[in-house]
């Protein structure tokens, strides 16, 4: 059980350290690249979708087909999609004027990635709580 908790915390540390860095950096970097408030809007979409999905996430996480470990994998994959969505504005920043992606396409890519990340956040956080609760049986709580 201790190894499960250790892997859980190490995984969460790297996932959310990268997410928080990306969210803060993207908000300021995209504002400087003439995307106005796209970084701030994408953060708002993440937390809006997260709030909505949180209302139904216990059904998703506790379902026998999903399970806690699969919910962690799905949630982490959704955070990865959000990180990959920022490759489009990065490509636009580095590309020549002839090879740029239309701004509307970048807005759609980033906002879709943010919505997917919000869904993943709504799944991964209840799964994390359930897994830690499952690991904390009577014998283990005395050791922690």
Polypeptide structure, described:
82% of the residues lie in helices and 0% in strands. It is an all-alpha fold. It has one domain (2-137). Helix 2 runs parallel beside helix 6 (103-135) and helix 4 runs antiparallel to helix 6. The radius of gyration is 18 Å and the shape is elongated.
Please tag this protein with its features.
elongated, 144 residues
How are the SSEs placed, and which strands pair?
Elements: H1 2-32, H2 38-54, H3 57-62, H4 67-85, H5 87-94, H6 103-135, H7 138-141
Helix pairs in contact: 1-2, 1-6, 2-6, 4-6
Q: Please, what is the average pLDDT?
A: 82
Task: Indicate the radius of gyration in whole angstroms.
Answer: 18 Å
- The total of beta strands comes to 0
Counting DSSP H or I runs of 4 or more residues, the number of helices is 7
What fraction strand?
under 5%
- Please provide the ordered H/E string of secondary-structure elements: HHHHHHH
Contiguous low-pLDDT stretches (5 residues minimum) are: none
**What is the general shape?**
elongated
Summarize this structure briefly.
With 144 residues, this protein is mostly helical. The chain contains 7 helices and no strands.
